[in-house]
Design a protein that fits this description.
Bound molecules: SN-glycerol-3-phosphate
Strand content: 15-25%
Helix content: 40-55%
Number of domains: 1
Order of helices and strands: EHEHHEHEHEHEHHEHEHH
Radius of gyration: 20 Å
Shape: globular
Low-confidence stretches: none
Structural class: alpha/beta
Largest sheet: 8 strands, parallel, barrel
Strand order of the largest sheet: 1-2-3-4-5-6-7-8
CATH topology: TIM Barrel
Number of strands: 8
Distance between the termini: 39 Å
CATH class: Alpha Beta
Length: about 220
């Protein structure tokens, strides 16, 4: 499963990129606002930090406006992936952009039927929001399983990008279902490394090592 960081924080992205864990980045208008940075400038910096796709979202709601914004965004770098909302205009823009060789991430997906439409429109990625789905009393992971089944039934090449990830269990369950990608806040990705027995093990080894009076030099 590919790991994307769901953030516009350049320091976090640089740190994760150095671990070799990072396959891409997703941003959205809320994350740009949180970063306090200029959209174009920060997107350019992020694109230079990672080799993989960097999602940058349009804010126009009509097809012509989305295409205008996409034209500006895709000039930032070759790894920009245009993010469009799951609306008729968004799907229309998805079709036009992917037919032209541009990566497209169709976002704000909350049903398997919506995911089917995105695949038919040639989306590179579909972003089902599992956390927000759970928050509203639905089963986010069932949504991922349904999309996986439908995409496999028809051999759609659209990659399932699990978004709105809140904790490690979301990542684990998504991997078990066979989602292609997950995007999570850096803190959630870093949290995957934590285990109480790992910490306890390090503590025990260091205590015994100190008793040997040796050093590695
Ligand atoms: O990038 C889209 C998505 O991951 C947003 O997550 O936590 O705002 O529901 P969240």
């Amino acid at each position: 499963m590919k790991f994307f960081a769901d953030t516009a924080d350049v320091a976090d992205i640089a740190e994760l990129a150095a671990t070799g864990l990072l396959d891409g980045v997703t941003t959205n208008p809320s994350l740009i606002h949180k970063s306090g940075r200029d959209f174009m400038e920060v997107t350019r910096e992020i694109c230079a930090l990672v080799d993989g796709p960097v999602s940058a979202e349009v804010v126009a709601l009509d097809h012509a406006g989305m295409m205008r914004e996409a034209e500006i965004l895709r000039k930032i770098a070759d790894n920009v992936c245009i993010k469009v909302p799951l609306t008729i205009d968004g799907l229309k823009s998805c079709k036009a952009l992917t037919s032209d060789g541009t990566m497209v991430n169709v976002t704000l997906c909350f049903s398997a039927a919506q995911a089917l439409l995105a695949a038919k429109a040639g989306a590179t990625f579909i972003s089902p929001f599992v956390g927000r789905h759970d928050d509203n009393g639905f089963d986010g992971m069932q949504l991922i399983a349904d999309i996986r089944l439908i995409y496999d039934n028809y051999d759609f090449g659209t990659e399932i990008l699990v978004a709105s990830v809140r904790h490690g269990i979301h990542i684990l369950e998504a991997a078990k279902i066979g989602a292609d990608v997950m995007t999570a806040p850096p803190a959630v990705i870093r949290g995957l490394v934590k285990h109480v027995l790992t910490d306890k093990g390090i503590e025990g080894f260091l205590a015994d090592w100190a008793k040997t009076g040796q050093s590695i030099a």
